[in-house]
Design a protein that fits this description.
mainly alpha; elongated
Length: about 140
């Protein structure tokens, strides 16, 4: 009777080779699937940054309509949330949740007068690498030059 029980236990257990085969298959699937998710994550962050820039531009437009001027570089984007001293007709805050950080945790960069943009100011994120003036910056001007 003991021999019968031992045979059933052996037949129901996984062999070491079967376990190793499963681990190899899981590792291969992870190697194939993981890069696709990380690339989508990067694209989602770029898209979120573009949406933030568009929302900040709308807030800057509202600020300009109310006050007759763009926020200065010294006041920066904080002028959209806190009234700058000496500003007339400020009707903010223009960003209800405050000035957002980009999806990588960095501040958006605002420069007025703009060096790149014809609309009077440059607004951009340093992008995934966090370095300004690099190829991965997300900007509010045309980069097709």
């Amino acid at each position: 009777m003991n021999d019968y029980k031992n045979k059933n236990i052996k037949n129901r257990a996984f062999s070491l080779i079967e376990l190793l085969l499963v681990l190899v298959i899981l590792a291969a699937l992870t190697a194939i699937v993981a890069p696709k998710f990380t690339n989508r994550s990067k694209q989602a962050r770029v898209t979120a940054s573009q949406a933030d820039i568009a929302n900040i531009e709308l807030a800057i437009d509202s600020f300009e309509i109310d006050t007759g001027a763009l926020p200065s570089s010294n006041d920066g984007l904080d002028a959209l949330v806190n009234e700058p001293s000496g500003t007339l007709n400020w009707n903010g805050p223009y960003l209800k949740r405050g000035v957002p950080k980009d999806p990588w945790g960095n501040e958006y960069i605002y420069v007025q007068p703009g060096k790149e943009n014809d609309n009077g100011y440059d607004l951009y994120s340093a992008g995934p690498d966090g370095q300004q003036n690099s190829d991965d910056d997300i900007v509010n001007w045309d980069t097709d030059d």
